[in-house]
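User: quick one, sequence for these C-alpha cells?
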C-alpha cells in the first residue's frame, strides 16, 4: 500500500527542533535584555515549546519581513508571542522580488544593541 506522505528522517526533525529552539531563545534574550519581558524562559514568554511549531514564516503580506510561528494546532504567533492571522495566504514562503531586492541592496545598519559604523577603506 502506498504511503500518502514521505517519511521524514529523524535527523531533519532534530535539526528543525534545534533551529526553532535557537530562534525562540535568540528573540527571548533580546526581549529580556531590553527589559520587555519578565519571563524566565522562552516557553514561558511564548506559551508553547519548539516541538509545537510546524512552520516558521518570514514574510507577511501587508506587514513585510518578520517572524511568525505556525503551531501544530493552527495558531500563528509573531516573534513577540502575540496572536496573528491564521490564513496561509497572508504568509509567503519568500517575499516578493521588490522587497527582496531592496533588502539585498541596502547595507545592514544596526546590530542588536548598537549601531555599526561604516568601514573606512584600508590603505595599502
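Assistant:
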Amino acid at each position: 500500500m502506498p504511503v500518502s506522505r514521505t517519511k521524514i528522517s529523524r535527523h531533519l526533525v532534530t535539526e528543525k527542533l534545534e533551529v526553532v529552539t535557537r530562534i525562540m531563545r535568540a528573540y527571548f534574550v533580546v526581549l529580556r535584555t531590553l527589559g520587555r519581558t519578565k519571563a524566565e524562559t522562552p516557553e514561558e514568554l511564548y506559551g508553547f515549546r519548539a516541538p509545537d511549531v510546524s512552520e516558521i514564516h518570514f514574510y507577511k503580506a501587508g506587514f513585510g519581513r518578520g517572524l511568525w510561528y505556525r503551531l501544530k494546532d493552527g495558531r500563528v504567533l509573531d516573534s513577540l508571542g502575540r496572536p496573528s492571522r491564521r490564513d496561509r495566504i497572508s504568509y509567503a514562503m519568500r517575499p516578493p522580488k521588490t522587497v527582496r531586492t531592496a533588502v539585498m541592496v541596502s547595507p545592514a545598519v544596526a546590530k542588536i544593541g548598537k549601531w555599526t559604523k561604516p568601514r573606512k577603506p584600508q590603505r595599502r
